[in-house]
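To whoever is on call:

I kicked off a structure prediction for a single chain this morning and the downstream step that reads the tokens threw a length-mismatch warning. I double-checked the sequence; it's 190 residues and nothing unusual in it as far as I can see. Pasting both halves so you can look.
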Amino acid sequence: MTDSRQPTALDLPIVDPLPEATQKYFDICTEKLGMIPNVLKANAFDIDKLNAFTGIYNNLMLADSGLSKLEREMIAVVVSSINRCFYCIVAHGAALRQLSGDPMLGEMIAINYRVANLEPRQRAMLDFAAKMTTESYTIEEADREALREVGFCDRDIWDIANVAGFFNMTNRVGSATAMWPNDEYHAQFR
């Protein structure tokens, strides 16, 4: 199934022709994912904005971290679920299903992570991300200490906060622009 919708409700056409490096990146996406994620198409009206977005995303979600890629996707889905961001719940829900190999876990995390049988480390991490999303102004040392008690170091806490913060920002942009997830995500890894 190929998605023929515009990636957002805004009329921001993709730069044509794309710069060589961007075209190569899109070709890699097509080869590895079978599609170009709509979030990339949405940002491709301005190559500097696209590069800034992909730079931050790749650093937070793919670079070395004390958090596994699965844990980072869990944060993305919990934050997106609280914010009701359709694009990110669908897209990162697929990634969570893929990384966990467990479609049921993916659904539980997307709907209510508290019903999932999580390790104490993961539960504390998601509690922190949820609190950051709903009432970040109430976070205090006891919240960071709760993360340390389950094995997170201060660098890990930095990464948890940055992943949660990034998705809080992108959720709001996605919702404000009616960003639509690629149709392919819906059936993936079920």
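Update from on-call: the warning came from a stale cache, not from the record. Cleared it. Sanity check on the structure: The chain has two domains: 20-62, 69-187.
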